[in-house]
């Protein structure tokens, strides 16, 4: 933590001087038979955070608030509710004195640079000796108040994006899944032209030595996972493109990831670069008189279609998806006018969603600036 040129009333301390620690031994859950019907959350300091809920009544931690600290990765969570823990691989951190605002310390800890590549417990050996800048309690609380307001703005943007996603799911369900329509196989709604449903080329026809600095683009999973076909810069020359022309993409084509969990799907936009798909993708060229691509993408991502794919994978996982399976998937086929009406709703909602995402990025950038200034004594 950079502490140069701090205001005069600030001081530099070690984390261990302001934080008490407790081993979590007394709060470890006895079994992992979790249920959402139970009340007490079981926590980890890692990404999962809440692993589940237990009905155990003994050994519930209630000295709040507290920082739970992963002793191996140094990640941490600020907790204000009672809980039990999964394992002993953490420390429970609380203030040593009344002159410390725990939320201030937690926020400051998120900015600390620490190398945790060696697999060992860090808090007692190294982490507690890290030096941090510490202002008066009043200043700590003022900084926390400002940073929390920025965090609340971020959460509002995230919630709005979630609401928009839920709204689209609700509209799709009401328009198409609650009603009965004619049922068709995907093969029946694809274009009648040759290679309308096709995976990328296998074998020796698309080796890395054929890649060039420019020409015709090679589309793969990385673009579809990002849902951004402008990403990436792998190309082949015109001669190789002509040999693989059966794998070329067109505006409105549906691109589906074949490797990994099913669920990554993109629609080829108007301004795409001419090119082909690689072996990790398949394409579907639709008969647009029958099917709108935006409707079709949402349909493929619906639970009903996902269940069909899972059932068709011989009881295995949805990691195994191929052209044969996709061709035989049954889908409802509502009137094209209804599909197009839904597509217009999606386009409108997506514009709102993009505005919220842009605003979220701007708030996150502002928040980062505020954090930097806060812990250099330049905010209040």
Short description:
This protein is α+β, with helices and mostly antiparallel strands. The chain contains 10 helices and 19 strands. The chain has helices spanning 15-18, 102-109, 137-177, 186-189, 221-226, 238-243, 293-300, 303-312, 323-328, 336-374; strands spanning 11-14, 19-22, 40-43, 50-54, 66-70, 76-79, 84-85, 90-95, 131-134, 182-185, 197-199, 211-212, 216-219, 235-236, 254-257, 265-267, 275-277, 281-284, 330-333.
Number of helices: 10
Overall morphology: elongated
- Please identify, by name, the CATH architecture of the largest domain: Alpha-Beta Complex
What is the mean predicted local confidence, pLDDT?
A: 92
Helix content: 25-40%
Task: Give the strand order, joined by hyphens, for the main sheet.
Answer: 2-8-5-6
- Structural category: alpha+beta
Low-confidence stretches: none
Percent in strands: 15-25%
Would you identify the CATH H-level superfamily of the largest domain?
Answer: DNA methylase specificity domains
- Helix and strand pattern: EHEEEEEEEHEHEHEEEHEHEEEEHHHEH
| Biggest sheet descriptor | 4 strands, antiparallel
